[in-house]
Structure formats: structure tokens, C-alpha cells
Amino acid sequence: MRFSTSSLSALSLAGLAQAAHHQVTVGKGGELKFVPEVVKAQKHDTITYTFFAKNHSVAQSSFDKPCQPIDGAIFSGFVPSDSQDVASRTTFTITVEDDKPIWLYCSQTTGDHCKKGMVHAINPPESGNTIDAYKEKAKNAPQSTSPHDGLPQIGRREISVDVGKGGLKFDPDNIVEPVGTYVKFNFSPKNHSVVQSTFDKPCQLLERGFSSGHIPTKEGTVSPATFNIQIENTKPVWFYCAQPNGNHCQSGMVGSINAPTEGNTLAAFVEKAKTAPTPSTIDPYAPLGGIILVNGKEVKTFNGNELPAEFREGNNNGDSTTITPSATHSTPPAASQTLPAWGSPDVPDYFADKAGGHKPKHWNWAEKLSPSATAFLQLHLQIENLITHLLWESYLKLETAGEWKGVYPQTIVDSIGAWAAQSVLHSATTATVMEHYQIKPHGGCKWKLPLDGGVKGFLEAWNSLNLVQIGALIDMSSQIAKEDPFLVPVLLAQVGAKSRAAGVVNMMRNHLASAAPREIGVPVPLAWSYVLGNFVESCPAEVEVEGVEKAWPGVKVAEVEEAGETKVTVEYEGSGEHWVAWIGPWGELEYAKVEGGKQVSVPKGWTGDVFVVIVDEEGVGLGEIAKHVVAGPEQVWL
Ligand SMILES: *[C@@H]1O[C@H](CO)[C@@H](O)[C@H](O)[C@H]1NC(C)=O
Ligand SMILES: *[C@@H]1O[C@H](CO)[C@@H](O)[C@H](O)[C@H]1NC(C)=O
């Protein structure tokens, strides 16, 4: 019989596209046998070995020297197993590279498995060096040996661990496996995760540890998504489920890899977890330190709060799609989990690392804090919190998985993350001072972030908030200098970081590159009015700034060129005799009369970012200006 050419090529194409997967049992039913004893496999096929009691291995020899390992060749390591009928959770899988014969044996010496015929072959010849000839040779071979380090090589040794199957537990809960083994976590309902911690701090994520993210799983199914990590060394590894609903970790849903049998045992870890602070923590991104596979394909980064729905049902493959952090970020950064709690003096190491340092450690506390300093700190905390949210939220959007991914080079994205982290530090610094003087932070305002319009809205908001906060810090510092001098450097130290950020923002807005913006002192009431008018959805009643009942009406400013002179038009509510107060850097303050048609001339030589405010009196100093505001402030680029 002859194949036609076309059917032949169709056959070989099919062979290429679809590698076969073979299964071989090792020692099943207590027999010293591989079943099947011979596998016929093609290039790219995989063979998975499953292991039964008591304690077997798969090792490669040459045909001539059965029961002796070849250096650097296939070895599964030993797989101890409890049952003769139920396969161990540990498997070993090899990929066939060509059609040459491969000779394999079990290297267990207790009971002389190899010599007793526990051998196996892939693609052995049908005559001459046959499997029977190999088995015969093995009978007379010297005592079998294993590769001396005992570690798996060439193939993939993998242990399968159930997460949340039949209760809040990992099964097995202590994974005893050699270095190099992969651990595959399978998720049962409802919504679990695997996150690494240290022994000392159960339920708290370990910096640079692994995290699967939360994997919601449909009732009655096992998730098609698995989380896969590799055991890198012999040190014990500790992990937990970070689901805060129901306190899984504190309820005992913890596990270990190669935990000591004495001292810091898994049982001791379970005990420690019971009293761990709630809730458990998780990183904003997943997966970390391992990969999520759905139908054998990798799922890219997603928001750690949950694996996106399209990967949960098993009919979707990973690979091609990059998942965005999705709608879970519509409320500020699912921040309750990542950013420190509102008003908290804590800075998680995560942010300290990202910011390139911690908050100040040594303070020259004064005996008490003046009432005005107290009020400033309350306000500073609010504005800084707004900045943190703006930056962190935008950073998440810009990061590898975000919807603005690729808009900026990674170095810029990283810097934005770093500035977000610095903003966390700045809030924490203020919160530390308040804590020292037992001042309770007011409740946090709810922000509206202008992020729907893409990066442009973000940049404008960042720029103006940066300048507003710099302005407020300068004003606050000058006002507290007399009564609370120790606080001045604390506040002003923040100006440097913000100022550098503002320099970068200038560049990103395609404005003149400058090392720093022009730092403009902005009277605190004006700064707060600006924040209120532009970014606040609501604030708790206790949040008050003297002289600002609510935001002053806005003012729209547009630049016009008239007979070689630059002017601006101003649009605002109200009539009467008004002036624009131009507030510039280095204490500059100039007034210009609002003329008919509401035109105003621009102070000569002024460029860059400045603030304008409409006032009802000319010539008042900055300290008094808040009493005369009609509309504004607004920020203008000249
Ligand atoms: C399995 O067998 C190997 C080789 O004899 C031995 O080193 C190892 O301790 C055994 N494991 C168990 C759990 O019996
Ligand atoms: C899974 O749990 C996380 C953490 O509690 C939560 O944010 C997420 O909404 C949950 N997802 C589902 C589908 O339950």
C-alpha cells in the first residue's frame, strides 16, 4: 500500500502541530514495573510518569550499563508515595527530542528494583538491543545508583497542591520536595490565593515573595487557572491564603515548603497565623514570583484582587491577551489593600523601597503643637492623600498591565511610581507628627480624579496639584515658623521631591524643560479652594479651612495676542470693579485691572506656571488676599 503524497504531508503536519502526551505508571499495584514498559514517541511528544508506593524514581542509563545513571541525563528524583493504587501528587514529565532509544530504570536500591526488572524504554529497536535484552542485562548489573545530588533534572518534576478543596486548607499543607521541583496550585471555590510570607509575619506578604492573586472559582468546579512556582533552595518557604473575607489565613489556611520538623514547624506557623493582624495583605499585581497558566498558556499581569473573569471559565486561553487591571480600579487603588490605611503613619517597605528611602526617623519634638500647625497638618494630609491616589492610580494604568500601557517609556513610568511612593511617605510623615501629639486625623475626603480622558487629564492634574501643594507647604511653613520651628524642615523637605517631579511634568507636557518648577507660595485658603473646586466629591464635615466655606467660583483664563501685547481674557461670575492678582514664584505678586470684555494684561516678563485670582481690591498682600477673592484661583501657563 502506498500513501499519496498529499495524505503523507497532511499526516506529518498533524504530527508537528499536535504532540502526543503519554502516561506511564511507576510501581502501580505494588509491582516493580513501568506500565507501559515501552513507549513509542515522536519528537515533541511528552511523557508523564506517575508514582505509586513505596519509593521509586525514573533514571536514564545507557543500554550497555543498565542501573547506572548517565551524567546530566534524565532523573526524576525519588518520589515516596503512600498508596499502591492512588498516584502520588508528584509527577515527572519529559519531552522527547528525537527518535533515538532512551533507556530508563528505577534507581531504588532498597529491594534492588532495577535488577528485578523495573526498567523502561522509549523507542527501543524491535530487534537487537530490545527492551528484553536491556532487562536481561539489568539482572546481572551491579547494584544500581542514582545521580549523586539526588535532584531532578532534564524533566519537569511537579507536585500538585489543592487550594481550598474541602475547606480552608492547602493539601498537602507541608510540601516536601527537592530543589528544582515545580509546585502547581489548583484552586477550588470560592476565591483563594497563595501568597508568600515569612515565618514571623504570617498573613503579611513578603516583599519580593510570590503571589498568585485571588482566583475566584465557579461553584462546583476547579479553576482552569493554576499558579506555578519552582522550589529554588532548601530553605523553608511559608505561604497563606490572603482572602480577607472570612480571614482565611487566620483560620489556618497556611502552608509551607520543606518546613523544619522541629522548632519553626508548620504547626507553630498555624498557631502564629491565628493571632496575625487582620486583614491579610496582597500585592496590587499578580502573579508575582510564579506564573498563572490557563489551559497551558500564561496569563499576563492582572490586578491581584482577582483573576479577570475571562480566564475563570476554562474556555479562554492566556497568552495573547494582556489583561488590564480593569474596573476594579474605579474606586481609588483598591487601595485599602495596597496603600496604607487613611491617616496611617505606617509606610510599608514596599513603598519605602519604591520611594528610595523611609520617612524621617529622628525628630526634635517640641513640647506641643500650635493650633494653626494642627490645622495645617490636617489639611496637608488631605491634599497629600489626593496626590497619592492620583499618582498611584495613574501609575497602575501606566504599568505593564494598565490601560495606558506603553504611553511613556518605562523609566518615566517607574519614576511616577516612585513619586507615588514618596507621596505615601509624605503623608506618613505628617501622620507621624499627628500621632505623636495624639491628634486624630479627620476623616478622608472622597476624590474625583480626572482620569477618564487619558494621560492628559492626569498630567494637568498632577502638575496643578503639585504646585498647589508646594504652594501650601511654603505658606504653611512661613506661618508656623515662629511657633513650631521644628516642623519647618519636616514640611519643606517635601518641597524638593515635589519640585523635581514638577520639573519632569513640565517636560512631559512638552513645555520648556526645567530642573524644577517655579515654586509659588499659595495662601492655604486659596490652595484648599482650588482642591475643593476641582477634585473633591465630598469631605467629612469636620474638614474645615478657615475662610473657605466652599470653593470660590471658578475662573476661565485664555491667552490672547493683541497688538503685540499678550493679554488674557477672564471669564467668571460677578460684576463690579475687579483685579486679577498674578501670583508668581519668588514672592511675585502683581495686580492688573479687569477691563471691559474682561481682558487683563499679563505682567511683563512672566513665563511658566502662575496662579491667578480675581479680587475686589488692588494691592493687598498675599497674607490678606483670601479676604478679597471673587473667583479663582486658577493656574495658567504663560
Ligand atoms: C526514598 O528512597 C531514597 C533512596 O533510597 C532515600 O534516600 C529516601 O530517603 C527515601 N524516601 C523516603 C521518604 O523513604
Ligand atoms: C475575590 O476576593 C478579593 C479579595 O477579597 C475581592 O477583591 C474580589 O472581588 C473577589 N472576587 C470575587 C469574584 O469574589
Please write out the topology.
Blueprint: H1 5-17, E1 21-26, E2 34-35, E3 38-39, E4 46-51, E5 55-56, E6 59-61, E7 79-80, E8 90-95, E9 102-105, E10 119-122, H2 131-139, E11 156-163, E12 170-171, E13 174-175, E14 182-187, E15 191-192, E16 195-197, E17 215-216, E18 225-230, E19 237-240, E20 254-257, H3 266-274, E21 285-286, E22 291-294, E23 297-299, E24 302-303, H4 335-338, H5 349-355, H6 371-398, H7 410-436, E25 446-447, H8 455-480, H9 487-508, H10 524-535, E26 536-538, E27 556-562, E28 565-571, E29 579-583, E30 589-593, E31 599-601, E32 609-615, E33 629-637
Parallel strand pairs: 1-4, 3-10, 11-14, 13-20
Antiparallel strand pairs: 1-2, 4-8, 5-7, 6-9, 8-11, 9-10, 11-12, 14-18, 15-17, 16-19, 18-22, 19-20, 21-24, 22-23, 25-26, 27-28, 28-31, 29-30, 29-32, 32-33
One 2-acetamido-2-deoxy-beta-D-glucopyranose is lined by residues 191, 214, 216, 243-245, 305-306.
Keywords: Signal
Signal peptide: 1-19
Biased composition (Polar residues): 314-338
